[in-house]
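Hi, here's the filled form for the chain we discussed.

Project: internal
Contact: R.S.
Residues: 153
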Amino acid sequence: EAAKKSGTLITARQTMDQGRAVMAIPGSIHNPLAKGCHALIKQGAKLVENANDITEELTPAIDMLSDQLRIQIKNNPTHPDNSTVEKPTKNPTSGLPEDQKQVLDTLGFDPMGFDDLVASSQLETADLNSILLTLELSGWIEKLPAAQYQRLK
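And the returned structure, exactly as it came back:
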């Protein structure tokens, strides 16, 4: 819900200006808090009536990110499937990009919450999410319940 002049609409319009997906669920024409969603739909936001509408909108972006992650993991010299894996060194993280090393060093071997990782690593939330997903897919960390992460190697 969003009134016709809400901060939510400002953010949504900026998102649309950046070419990113904006979705809105319509409401009753009698509800003043539905007018903002209706305005967004008129301006090009995707009308959402069920979960399939969201999936349909996000699937291409998820596929693109999956492909990018597969390439990044494949090009990671420490990934087990990569034929250029070097013999183990004193520091097993030596072949990782600096941002991944930083997150692993920050994480240590004890479970740590996402918010604590953000504060300790001083990385942007989106960047940290991307790094954590890459490390998880590469087998370096494990995501635990309650947004906790633990280093595995």
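Let me know if anything looks off before we file it.
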